[in-house]
Design goal:
InterPro entries: Integrase-like_N, TACO1_YebC-like_2nd/3rd_dom, TACO1_YebC_N, Transcrip_reg_TACO1-like, Transcrip_reg_TACO1-like_dom3, Transcrip_reg_TACO1_YeeN, YebC-like. One of its GO terms (molecular function) is DNA binding. The chain folds into three domains: about 70 residues, Integrase, N-terminal zinc-binding domain (Arc Repressor Mutant, subunit A), CATH 1.10.10; about 80 residues, YebC, transcriptional regulation domain (Alpha-Beta Plaits, 2-Layer Sandwich), CATH 3.30.70; about 70 residues, Alpha-Beta Plaits (2-Layer Sandwich). The two termini are about 15 Å apart. The protein has eight helices and eight strands; from the N terminus they run ααααββαββαββαβαβ. Strand 1 and strand 2 form a beta hairpin. It is α+β, with helices and mostly antiparallel strands and about 240 residues long. It is globular and about 50 Å long.
Length: about 240
């Protein structure tokens, strides 16, 4: 698959280790998912998925309960899902997903982040065609052969299964996400190191050394925006 998933998540974890930023973002995402259906994950696949992701990021239970209780309480706060596409230094490609209760504010903040850090906003579709929506599940304690056998027996179609350090990472089409989870759970695997629906670049690019710092500052600025949930890009930043 090119980019190692462990490297991506390790960098996110390091950045978020000493802040509550990631918890706030998950709280918003859980609230939105709970409002869209039943506030019970067993009856709401969207909520169930978000909770699985939250688990892999060690989101505290009280954050999860607070968001679900807010949805149960009939809060009328609503959020729009937005996707922005743009270019960073040296033509690098970036996708920004946001949840917002103020579209104008979010658009302005994202545009400013690009503009002040050597990038520029693109039109819808200008970047996304170079990325593939992908389901990613990671687990420990099994070999690549074990995982392949579990998935084949459950008739789950995947793109790739690879060993990355001490984990096995499975890449598949998004519509196979729940089937993968069920296959693993039926095999007695209930803990995952990663459970994501993401956008993976079809081809990665390397930036010249003098552009890397500017690019990383742009990504950090975008990720620090309260309304931004996820940022995807096509730059190989190494390990």
């Amino acid at each position: 698959m090119g980019r190692k998933w462990n490297n991506i998540k390790d960098k996110k974890a390091a950045k978020d280790a000493n802040t509550s930023r990631i918890y706030a973002k998950f709280g918003r995402e859980i609230y939105v998912a709970a409002r869209r259906g039943e506030p019970d994950p067993e009856a709401n696949q969207g909520l169930k998925f978000v909770l699985e992701r939250a688990k892999t990021y060690s989101v505290p239970r009280h954050i999860i309960d607070k968001a679900i209780d807010k949805a149960k309480g009939g809060s009328d706060e609503s959020f729009d899902e937005l996707r922005y596409e743009g270019f960073g230094p040296n033509g690098s490609m970036i996708i920004v997903d946001a949840l917002t209760n103020n579209v104008n504010r979010t658009a302005s903040e994202v545009r400013a982040a690009f503009g002040k850090n050597g990038g520029n906003m693109g039109v819808s579709g200008s970047v996304a065609y170079m990325f593939d929506a992908t389901a990613v599940i990671g687990l420990e304690g099994k070999s690549e052969e074990d995982v392949l056998e579990i998935l084949m027996e459950a008739d789950v179609n995947v793109r790739d299964v690879v060993e990355e350090e001490d984990q096995v990472i499975v890449y598949a089409e998004p519509d196979q996400f729940h089937a993968m989870q069920e296959a693993f759970k039926n095999a007695g695997i209930t803990e995952f190191t990663t459970a994501e629906l993401t956008m993976l670049a079809q081809n990665e690019v390397e930036l010249p050394e003098d552009a890397v710092a500017k690019f990383e500052k742009l990504i950090d600025t975008l990720e620090d925006l309260d309304d931004v949930q996820q940022v995807y890009h096509n730059v190989d930043l190494g390990e």
